[in-house]
Amino acid sequence: MNTATSTALPSGGLSAAPAAPLRQDATVIGLVGLAHASSHFSHLLLAPLFPIFMKEFGLSFAQMGFLTTVFFAISGIGQACAGFVVDRVGARPVLFGSIVCFMLAALSGFFAHGYAGLMLVAVFAGVGNAPFHPVDFTILNQRVSAPRLGYAFSVHGLTGNLGWALAPVFLMGFGSAFGHWRHGYLAAAVLYVLVLAVLVLNRAQLRSEVVVRAPDATRGNDLAFMKLPVVWWCFGFFFLSTMTLAVVQNFSASILQAVHGASFEAATATLTAYMVAGAVGMFIGGVVATRTPMHSDRVVAWCMTAGAALMALAATGWLGGAGTMAVLAVTGFAVGVGGPSRDMMIKKATPKGATGRVYGTVYSGLDLGFAVSPLIFGVFMDRGWYSATLLAAALVLLLSVGAALGVGRRTARP
């Protein structure tokens, strides 16, 4: 494994791996995308089966919701810590360990006979999910040629969305095909074995450099990056923007049903349309990020502003049920276009030699946003403030624009 020596944290930038053949870059991007899809798949190992668990094990909505809170709490705390491990030992062994945790989570689901078994699923999945952003971006930033990084970030976001889309269909499909929901978990465990096999067979493409500190370096240097204001501006951006995404994922279907009388199928289809439109936006956003790498913060700001405006329009209800659903779907597209530029923005803010630590800390804001948002906006929903929930989510997304511009001001070069 190659090493590099570092005693300080130079300013970040857009430097990446030297130019490499397209096939080599494509292989790295594909492998990391496969791993990222498996991570997002783990987010939904439990939620699609909540109604079944409530009926079979006699559990409440509160108990089900707590499983999700446990998952994201472990993932968020673990993500910040995992960045240090990635910088010390490399991304590859941490990645392999994460896939093993997902296998254990799926097997825990297969053997679960009550709440304790489901809690094991949440714990193992949370531990496995924690290292993914520092792992993924360490590999991409080190091994993908700079001119192709925008496309790499685009594919990374796309595969994450595909993992979300696949999980419910996969678990319910195999459960129905073999007569019991447990078989969905068994099939998921087999799927993770296959993913691990592919990654191990192509392990040479996943090697990352480890930064070795000089003998006179102090332990405090590991935390020097936390003194950089730009890191916390990045954290704030992820926290705020993810709070809005959590509202869409958790409450949009219920809002459409309550306010516009939409059917369950139509409301759920709107959420699917949001995710699909977001994926299309990420594809286009890859081109945008590649062509405007030095203005990534402005691209993000414009996209989030457009998304906030569209969501606020949906909150008014002026367009009726069908119009509101269409506007929500387009919101996903606007936010999706900004995704690759968002990752480029974080790269510019990352000091050399601290990729794992910075990405781990910054992306833990994503987990925190997912954990906190349902607690806050759930109160809105319980009080019947459905339109206000969407409007508040739009305002939070607009606040993230300020955070993105704050990052840009601190990474601007003469």
Model description:
With 414 residues, the chain is mainly alpha-helical. It folds into two domains: 22-148 and 158-209, Growth Hormone, Chain: A; 226-408, Growth Hormone, Chain: A. 78% of the residues lie in helices and 2% in strands. It has 14 helices and two strands. It has a two-stranded parallel ribbon with strand order 1-2. α4 runs antiparallel to α6. The longest helix has 32 residues, at 229-260. The chain is globular, with a radius of gyration of 21 Å. The two termini are 36 Å apart. Mean pLDDT is 84; it is low at 1-15.
Short summary:
With 414 residues, this protein is mainly alpha-helical.
What order do the helices and strands follow? EHHHHHHHHEHHHHHH
Distance between the termini: 36 Å
Largest sheet: 2 strands, parallel
Q: Give me the side-by-side strand order of the main sheet.
A: 1-2
Number of strands: 2
User: How many domains, as an integer?
Assistant: 2
Uncertain runs are 1-15
Class derived from helix and strand content: mainly alpha
For the record, the CATH class of the largest domain is Mainly Alpha
Name given to the CATH homologous superfamily of the largest domain: MFS general substrate transporter like domains
Average of the residue pLDDT scores: 84
Taken from the alpha-carbon principal axes, the silhouette is globular
Query: What's the helix count?
Result: 14
Q: What's the architecture of the largest domain in CATH terms? A: Up-down Bundle
Radius of gyration, taken over Cα atoms and rounded to an integer in Å: 21 Å
